[in-house]
């Protein structure tokens, strides 16, 4: 087990800068996820930790040890590849035993360890199979077992589930989490599936174009996105470009661009609601489930009369598109009460609760 | 100090590869060029101007004949190979599978042995013309091959296979739905063929044409035995060398190489152009069954006749190998058959020696090919470095160079002490032949190894390293075992080709170290057909064995790497 410290790392391939100004502190035993769209530099970062790439600038440490230029075979990391990279000429047993053979383990101890890990991944009956005769999920588990059996300090997983079908993916998620807890091993998990990231991780780093935008627990990332990219990438969100009109002690009053002039919104002035780091363009974000739909005009601030434009049924959830104050709002309501009977064209009221809104900087350029 | 370990490793692997290529491919070629620029002790282009302005025009005539024969060979091979590819891959009729595999049989015939078989079959005293003569009571043989027609027939027989194989594989890659779409859009059969199918096959046909052209420019055995007074360039080089006109031989070599290499470059350029290969799903061979009974039986009958013609040379060699020497002199047909030739082959040390020599020479050369091929291919496929395409070209040069030229290059480079031969003169020693065979087969082994290495995902190597294995351990325990089948099938092929190698052998052999092909030539000169045929049978058996082993145990179509 080890903590990982990535200190101001940059990786350039020729002119392409794949990762820039990266600073991460990953704790001992943590399940840490790299999340981001394709081509954002997740794999590149992971491979710098594994030692397959050396950073152009910066330092990678495991604990206090500088690992920046240590070759992969001396890092004691276990890696699970997207395509599994099982050795096709070996059986399941030999694949798993490979790392132990390299470490010159006695055959007795080796047998015990391999049997043990195969049992943990529930493949003990398959030990003598050729790996080509296994299903996708089984191959995945062999890859995991092979990485775990060497008792690595760090487990690295690069989109390990992307080749599996939905049901198997669910099963394997639990399997990976169980093994990670069993071995209590520092784990870095790469994915572009946000649901996977939110449900599995202790903490998440969100990447875009080689830059890490935010590091935080799943609830921090979801509830307190650092900027409009993070807010937009994770879950659904209403993002409205805004200007601050004035700040009172308790509240910040903002004017929505393109909205009707009357639609001034009041946001509670608290750290949770206002990220002051950036002085550029601002956006107001509110999750669809935070917006309330009401039959009658309610008391209080930020209420507007609106009209239902579309209704989408998702089972437990109903997604409603509302036009109010010149704005198009996505609203998610539980499948109960009023929302059950909503029809397109219905007149309703919406309330945007002031403590559920957040003012964040615009970094992507398209929300201006 | 080089800071990056990986760069250091790449360099460590690259240096021996580069040294071998420079010492044994580049340097000898440069020596030949130097030699061609020497005339009466000074540096001039005199030899070249002689080549083109010589009064007797022998050289120009030879160059022209080479080109002429090559163009004709391309045409005739295409006319046989392309229709066959269509018939066997598009129509289903009884015996199709058997005919289709019999169609590649010319490949199991080493070139010298093949030419020999054609001489026995269709030459002046050949079995077929004489059989026809006797059958119809003619006064003279109705036909005989020799000179240009002989060369052309042998070329057509051996080279149509390249058209057959490349076009077959292109046909099988065409997504049937393309043609179906065209029919669906209202095109008739004729239109579909000329507007859809044929354009899709053009890349394969062009590639095969260039290949056949290069091979027939370089062809040596057929002109050697059949040319008579007819001059071709590859043979002229040999005559110049025999006559001691080394500067002329060098000039002829350079000119022949320039033609061949321009074709190689043209071919690479053509293949690198965007081709229309598409990744479409669910391609299935779609052969239409031939329902018309007349047509069906015509096809079957033609197939049977074709197979007989194709296998006649093999059968002739087998038959002749059973005729003891001295029992077939004045008679039209042999009358005594037994295993005397084979008995002598394994019991008479003098007759066994060439076989033993060839096997030993080939084992040495092939071992070198194996080690060098794996190393070079690994560096080329899996490592990054500047100047890769230069190394790539060096590797391919021995493939583009006619064998005769490679032989001449070695003579010019190693008839004097060099650092590359550790201060020894290699010409006239045992070592020159294994070196020649090694150089000849560098491209074959590197290419067949490239094919398997390209299939091997980089993550396999990375997985091993992240599990703690050092590079060398990874290479031995992971990479080598995975690529071994492909590598071995290429290497075995190089081995059998070395056993039969004639053009470089005839330029470089020493009296005490005669390989099998030289002995075949000697036996033919002494009219010991039987013994020559027995040597030939050994070679045919070896090649057939290797193709069989590759197919059966390694799952590799070894014959593919020949083209
Ligand atoms: N070996 C390389 N040479 C050149 N450019 C590279 C190399 N590897 C990655 N890149 C570039 O660096 C950027 C980041 O790539 P990376 O593979 O890290 O993305 P990723 O986040 O893992 O994406 P994905 O989800 O598609 O796997 C991309 O623009 C990619 O084109
Ligand atoms: Mg990736």
Automatic annotation (TrEMBL), chain A:
Which residues are the signal sequence here? none
The molecular function terms in GO held by this entry are:
ABC-type polyamine transporter activity; ATP binding; ATP hydrolysis activity
The cross-references to Gene3D superfamilies, in alphabetical order and at most eight, read: 2.40.50.100, P-loop containing nucleotide triphosphate hydrolases
Q: Which SMART domains match?
A: AAA
Q: Which domain of life is it from?
A: Bacteria
Which InterPro entries does this chain map to? AAA+_ATPase, ABC_SmlMolc_Importer, ABC_transporter-like_ATP-bd, ABC_transporter-like_CS, Mo/tungstate-bd_C_term_dom, P-loop_NTPase, PotA-like, Transp-assoc_OB_typ2
Catalysed reaction(s) here are: ATP + H2O + polyamine-[polyamine-binding protein]Side 1 = ADP + phosphate + polyamineSide 2 + [polyamine-binding protein]Side 1
Q: Which UniProt keywords apply?
A: ATP-binding, Cell membrane, Membrane, Nucleotide-binding, Translocase, Transport
Give the Pfam families listed for this entry: ABC_tran, TOBE_2
Entry-linked PROSITE patterns: ABC_TRANSPORTER_1 (PS00211), ABC_TRANSPORTER_2 (PS50893)
Q: What is its EC number?
A: 7.6.2.11
- The UniProt record lists the ABC transporter domain at 4-234
Q: Which GO terms describe its cellular component?
A: ATP-binding cassette (ABC) transporter complex
According to its UniProt entry, what is the function of this protein?
Part of the ABC transporter complex PotABCD involved in spermidine/putrescine import. Responsible for energy coupling to the transport system.
* Quaternary structure, from the entry: The complex is composed of two ATP-binding proteins (PotA), two transmembrane proteins (PotB and PotC) and a solute-binding protein (PotD).
**Hey, which family's this protein in?**
Belongs to the ABC transporter superfamily. Spermidine/putrescine importer (TC 3.A.1.11.1) family.
Query: Which PANTHER family does UniProt cross-reference here?
Result: SPERMIDINE/PUTRESCINE IMPORT ATP-BINDING PROTEIN POTA, SPERMIDINE_PUTRESCINE IMPORT ATP-BINDING PROTEIN POTA
Question: What protein is this chain from?
Answer: Spermidine/putrescine import ATP-binding protein PotA
What is the native source organism of this protein? Cytobacillus firmus
- Gene name, per UniProt, is potA
UniProtKB/TrEMBL annotation, chain B:
Q: Do the record's keywords include Transmembrane helix?
A: yes
Q: Name one Pfam family in it.
A: BPD_transp_1
Which cell locations does it reside in? Cell inner membrane; Cell membrane
> Which residues belong to any copy of the ABC transmembrane type-1 domain?
63-267, 355-550
- SUPFAM superfamilies noted in UniProt: MetI-like
Domain of life, source organism: Bacteria
| Regions crossing the membrane | 9-27, 67-86, 98-123, 143-163, 198-228, 248-270, 297-323, 359-381, 393-413, 419-439, 478-496, 532-554
Gene3D superfamilies linked to this entry: MetI-like
GO BP terms: namely: transmembrane transport
Where is it predominantly found? Answer: membrane
Q: Where is the signal peptide?
A: none
Give the record's GO CC terms: plasma membrane
* Family to which this protein belongs: Belongs to the binding-protein-dependent transport system permease family.
Q: Which PANTHER family match?
A: INNER MEMBRANE ABC TRANSPORTER PERMEASE PROTEIN YDCV
Name of the featured protein = Iron(III) transport system permease protein
Native organism: Cytobacillus firmus (Bacillus firmus)
């Amino acid at each position: 087990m080890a903590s990982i410290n990535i200190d101001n790392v940059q990786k350039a391939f020729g002119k392409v800068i794949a990762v820039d100004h990266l600073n991460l502190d990953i704790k001992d035993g943590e399940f840490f996820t790299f999340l981001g769209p394709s081509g954002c530099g997740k794999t590149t970062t992971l491979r710098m930790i594994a030692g397959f790439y050396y950073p152009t600038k910066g330092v990678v440490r495991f604990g206090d040890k500088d690992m920046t230029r240590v070759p992969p075979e001396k890092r004691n990391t276990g890696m699970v590849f997207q395509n599994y990279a099982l050795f096709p000429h070996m059986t399941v047993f030999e694949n798993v035993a490979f790392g132990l053979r390299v470490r010159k383990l006695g055959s007795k101890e080796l047998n015990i360890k391999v049997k043990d890990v195969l049992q943990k991944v529930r493949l003990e009956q398959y030990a003598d199979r050729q790996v080509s005769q296994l299903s996708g999920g089984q191959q995945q588990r062999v890859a995991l077992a092979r990485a775990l059996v060497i008792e690595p300090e760090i487990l690295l997983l690069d989109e390990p589930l992307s080749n599996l079908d939905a049901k198997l993916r669910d099963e394997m998620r639990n399997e990976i989490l169980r093994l990670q807890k069993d071995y209590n091993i520092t784990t870095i998990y790469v994915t572009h599936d946000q649901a996977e990231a939110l449900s599995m991780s202790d903490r998440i780093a969100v990447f875009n174009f080689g830059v890490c935008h935010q590091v935080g627990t799943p609830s921090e990332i979801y509830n307190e996105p650092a900027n409009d990219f993070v807010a937009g990438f994770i879950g659904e969100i209403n993002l409205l470009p805004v200007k601050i009109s004035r700040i009172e002690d308790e509240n910040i009053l903002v004017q929505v661009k393109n909205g009707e002039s009357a639609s001034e919104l009041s946001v509670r002035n608290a750290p949770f609601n206002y990220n002051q780091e950036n002085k550029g363009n601002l956006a107001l974000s509110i999750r669809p489930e935070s917006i309330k739909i009401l039959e009658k005009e309610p008391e209080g601030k930020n209420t507007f009369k609106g009209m239902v434009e579309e209704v989408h049924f998702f089972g437990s959830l109903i997604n409603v598109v509302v036009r109010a104050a010149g704005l198009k709002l996505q609203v998610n309501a539980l499948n109960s009460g009023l929302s059950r009977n909503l029809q397109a064209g219905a007149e309703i009221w919406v309330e945007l609760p002031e403590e559920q809104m957040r003012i964040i900087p615009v970094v992507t350029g398209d929300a201006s | 100090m080089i800071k990056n370990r990986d760069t250091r490793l790449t360099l460590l692997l690259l240096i021996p590869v580069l040294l071998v290529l420079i010492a044994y491919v580049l340097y000898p070629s440069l020596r030949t060029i130097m030699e061609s620029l020497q005339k009466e002790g000074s540096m001039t282009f005199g030899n070249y101007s002689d080549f083109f302005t010589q009064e007797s025009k022998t050289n120009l005539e030879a160059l022209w004949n080479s080109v002429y024969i090559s163009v004709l060979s391309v045409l005739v091979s295409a006319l046989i190979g392309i229709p066959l590819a269509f018939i066997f891959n598009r129509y289903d009729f009884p015996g199709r599978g058997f005919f289709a595999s019999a169609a590649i049989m010319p490949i199991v015939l080493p070139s010298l042995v093949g030419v020999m078989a054609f001489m026995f079959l269709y030459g002046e005293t050949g079995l077929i013309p004489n059989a026809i003569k006797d059958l119809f009571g003619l006064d003279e043989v109705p036909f005989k091959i020799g000179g240009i027609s002989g060369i052309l027939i042998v070329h057509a027989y051996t080279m149509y296979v390249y058209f057959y194989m490349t076009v077959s594989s292109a046909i099988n890659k065409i997504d049937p739905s393309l043609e179906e779409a065209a029919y669906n859009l209202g095109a008739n059969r004729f239109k579909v063929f000329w507007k859809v199918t044929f354009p899709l096959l053009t890349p394969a046909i062009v590639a095969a044409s260039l290949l056949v052209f290069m091979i027939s420019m370089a062809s040596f055995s057929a002109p050697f035995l059949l040319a008579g007074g007819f001059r071709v360039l590859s043979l002229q080089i040999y005559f110049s060398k025999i006559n001691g006109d080394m500067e002329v031989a060098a000039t002829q070599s350079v000119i022949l190489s320039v033609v061949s290499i321009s074709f190689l470059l043209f071919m690479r350029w053509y293949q690198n152009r965007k081709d229309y290969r598409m990744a479409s799903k669910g391609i299935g061979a779609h052969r239409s069954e031939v329902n018309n009974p007349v047509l069906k039986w015509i096809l079957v009958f033609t197939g049977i006749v074709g197979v007989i013609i194709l296998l006649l040379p093999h059968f002739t060699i087998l038959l002749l190998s059973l005729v003891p020497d001295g029992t077939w002199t004045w008679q039209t047909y042999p009358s005594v058959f037994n295993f005397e030739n084979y008995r002598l082959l394994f019991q008479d040390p003098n007759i066994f020696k060439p076989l033993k020599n060839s096997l030993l020479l080939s084992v040495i050369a092939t071992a070198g090919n194996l080690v060098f091929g794996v190393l070079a291919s690994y560096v080329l496929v899996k490592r990054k470095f500047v100047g890769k395409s230069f190394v790539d070209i060096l590797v391919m040069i021995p493939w583009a160079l006619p064998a005769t030229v490679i032989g001449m290059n070695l003579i010019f480079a190693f008839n004097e002490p060099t650092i590359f031969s550790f201060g020894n003169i290699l010409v006239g020693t045992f070592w020159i032949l294994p070196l020649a065979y090694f150089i000849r087969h560098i491209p074959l082994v590197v290419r067949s190894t490239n094919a398997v290495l390209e299939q091997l995902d980089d993550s396999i190597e990375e997985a091993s390293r992240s599990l703690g294995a050092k590079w060398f351990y990874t290479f031995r325990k992971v990479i080598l075992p995975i690529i071994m089948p492909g590598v071995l099938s290429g290497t075995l092929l190089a081995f059998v080709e070395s056993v039969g190698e004639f053009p470089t052998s005839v330029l470089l052999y020493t009296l005490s170290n005669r390989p099998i092909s030289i002995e075949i030539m000697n036996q033919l000169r002494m009219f010991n057909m039987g013994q020559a045929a027995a040597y030939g049978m050994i070679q045919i058996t070896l090649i057939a064995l290797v193709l069989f082993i590759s197919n059966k145990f390694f799952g590799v179509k070894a014959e593919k790497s020949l083209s």
